[in-house]
Amino acid sequence: MSSNVLLTIKGLHFSYGRRAIADGIDIEVERGKITTIMGPSGTGKTTLLRMIGGQVAPHRGDIVFDGESIPALGKAQLLETRKSMGLLFQASALFTGLSVYDNVAFPIREHTKLSERMVRHLVLSKLEAVGLRGAAELMPAELSGGMARRVALARAVALDPRLMMYDEPFVGQDPITMGVITRLIKLLNDSLGLTSIIVSHDVHEVMAISDYVYLISAGKVIASGTPQQLQQSDSPWAQQFLRAEPDGPVSFQYPALDYKKDLFGLAKS
Amino acid sequence: MFEPIRLIGEAALRALARLGQATLFIVQVIAGIPPLLRRFSLVITQLYEVGVLSIAIIAVSALAVGMVLGLQMFYTLRDFGSEQILGQVVALSLVRELGPVLTGLLFAGRAGSALTAEIGLMKATEQLSSMEMMAVDPIKRVVAPRFLAGILSMPLLAAMFSAVGIIGGYLVGVGMLGVDSGAFWSLMQANVDFYDDILNGMIKSLVFGIIITWIAVFEGYDAKPTAEGVSRATMRTVVHSAFAVLAFDFILTALMFGGS
Ligand SMILES: Nc1ncnc2c1ncn2[C@@H]1O[C@H](COP(=O)(O)OP(=O)(O)OP(=O)(O)O)[C@@H](O)[C@H]1O
Ligand SMILES: [Mg+2]
User: Fold this and answer.
1) In angstroms, what CA-CA distances link B7 with B3, B10, B14, B240?
2) Which residue among B121, B125, B137 sits closest to A91, beta carbon to beta carbon?
3) CATH code for the domain of A9
4) Predicted TM-score (pTM) of this structure
5) How many domains, in total, are found in chain B?
6) Does A169 share its domain with A70?
7) Are A151 and A123 in the same domain?
């Protein structure tokens, strides 16, 4: 596996009912790099990450992770492959019945036979990395949203995955925490030798640390390139997104019937 | 004109499909039980949540039921001058019927609903999903220990219900109404059979335990991942378990006690 590409998505198709979520998406993620996927809310970014993790099967197309086709894996192989992936969920998804310490220890205890002393060593070092070693004994209900996100981050990297995926890591964070998380993602990526995929719409934060950016909308990749290339691109899509303009080729509305018809009930029957 | 028939057919098909889903699900759960023997602490935790925490409501209800039973039976038996057999009558009603059935109904309300709500909420807050992404199978890690704990708890709780109920009957019959204590116990001992009565009662409670816990974990795992979905699933657990307990009680009673 000398190839420089860790993850390849080829001709991916997926839809919920008639609503196309992926309509021929091609993405390549290079080893050791931070790749960002940006797109308006509801385009299917979370669904895309779930397909990479094998939780949702694509209708057509292939996802190849380190030489293995994810959709073709059996259940046991899939579990094995997931050990080398970490996913930070949009809603932190901590186990509410376990303390912060036990949450971070969970994947370690499940997948290794390390002694409790070693587990303690690992857990505390991961918590230290996200600045929450002091919160080890708290329960998830006692954390703020931002703290919960960082604990979830510590848990996601507990087994030193090769690919780390972040689903909207900045949502609901104050500017300081945002900066902290941004630096943390970069730091983890470089120091642990990870490959990272970030899904986000926080243009400024991600442009600063990304090596490569994909813009997706309506199930298609509409622009891609390094942050510099995108900033200079004259694609109206890219410009609208990066400058956060409400109007442009990307529509803010969920596909709907004509507003006036809807209001007067003419659309019924 | 054919509409009602079509609707009935449709509902029947849906119920059948759901039964199929529940069966496939429980097969996976059962496959997850053997590995638990090596990590029995997971089951112990759930035995506490499911079993020990149900003891209070079971004991209080059993005492009340036993006392009322003693009182009612005493007045009826006295008319025939045979109040000495009170102990036997109370014990047989409890061991054969009331113990397993009432424990089943209480267990569905106390433990079954809690199981559904817990698993459903774990699903709604993506805890199960994140577990999957950590390469841990939630059916093995979350569902199987709860299922096993439910099955183990039910017969023990039902036995406790019968025992406490008999004490309730004793308190009222012997303590308040003056039935002879020796007759109360010795007639009970002579006429309650271990195999026919006690063992059959235990089998009933085991069957109820399997059904209730099965319904509870399936409804939780299958719940719509929203607040409303979890609340509906919890409601369904209690209602379906109650119906299932009553229906199976009838069938099992006919099978077990019909021949004699
Ligand atoms: N289980 C489901 N069944 C049907 N439709 C769904 C389901 N999950 C998501 N969708 C639809 O798929 C679309 C994409 O959802 P997804 O969560 O992937 O979006 P997203 O890009 O992550 O959005 P956001 O940025 O707001 O998180 C949404 O329009 C949603 O309506
Ligand atoms: Mg999302």
Assistant:
1) 6, 5, 10, 21
2) B125
3) 3.40.50.300
4) 0.87
5) 1
6) yes
7) yes
Identify the closest residue of chain A to B128 by CA–CA distance: A93
CA A17 to ligand 1: nearest atom? 4
Assign residue B237 a region: left if phi > 0, alpha if psi is -120 to 50, beta otherwise? Answer: alpha
Q: CA–CA separation, B211 vs B245, rounded Å?
A: 8
In a domain, B182, yes or no: yes
CA atoms within 13 A on the CB side of B13: 6
Instruction: Number of helices (H) and strands (E) in chain A: give both, helices first.
Output: 10, 10
Local confidence band at A247 (pLDDT 50, 70, 90 cut-offs): low
Which residue from A87, A95, A96 is facing B133, i.e. has the nearest CB?
A87
| Cα–Cα distance for residue pair B68/B70, rounded to 1 Å | 5
Span A21-26, average pLDDT: 90
Domain-embedded: residue B15: no
Q: Which of A52, A73, A87 to mutate to test the interface with B (most CBs of B within 10 A)?
A: A87
Ligand 2 center to A85 CA (angstroms): 18
Element (H, E) at A38: strand A34-38
Do A188 and A241 have their domain in common?
yes
Q: Does residue B129 belong to the interface with chain A, where contact is any CB pair within 8 Å?
A: yes
Q: What is the pLDDT of residue A29?
A: 94
Residues A246 and A181 in one domain: yes
C-beta separation of B125 from B26 below 8 A: no
- CA-to-CA distance for A150 and A147, rounded, in angstroms? 5
Domain that residue A128 falls in: 85-160
Classify residue A14 as left (phi > 0), alpha (psi -120 to 50) or beta.
Answer: beta
At position B104, the amino acid (one-letter code) is G
The token pair that represents B36 in the structure block: 């638990």
Ligand 1 close to Cβ of residue A41 (< 6 A): yes
Residue A105 shares a structural domain with residue A118? yes
Please determine, for residue B33, whether its predicted confidence score (pLDDT) is greater than 90.
yes
Place of tokens 């299932």: B244
Check CB contact under 8 Å for B135 and A83: yes
Interface contact B132-A85, CB threshold 8 A: no
Residue type, B193: D
The residue whose CA is least distant from atom 26 of ligand 1 is: A41
Predicted complex ipTM exceeds 0.90: no
Asked whether residue B73 is domain-assigned, the answer is yes
User: pLDDT-based confidence at A235, cuts 50/70/90?
Assistant: confident
- A25 and A67 in a single domain? The answer is yes
Give the helix ranges, DSSP H, for chain B.
Answer: 3-31, 40-46, 55-79, 86-92, 99-107, 113-124, 127-133, 138, 144-170, 181-191, 200-222, 227-257
The amino acid at residue A255 is P
| Of residues A55, A79, A94, nearest to B137 (C-beta) | A79
Ligand 2 centroid from CA A91, angstroms: 9
- Distance between CA atoms of A182 and A162, rounded to whole angstroms? 19
B215/B113 Cα distance (integer angstroms): 10
Residue A200's φ and ψ, nearest 5 degrees, are -165, 160
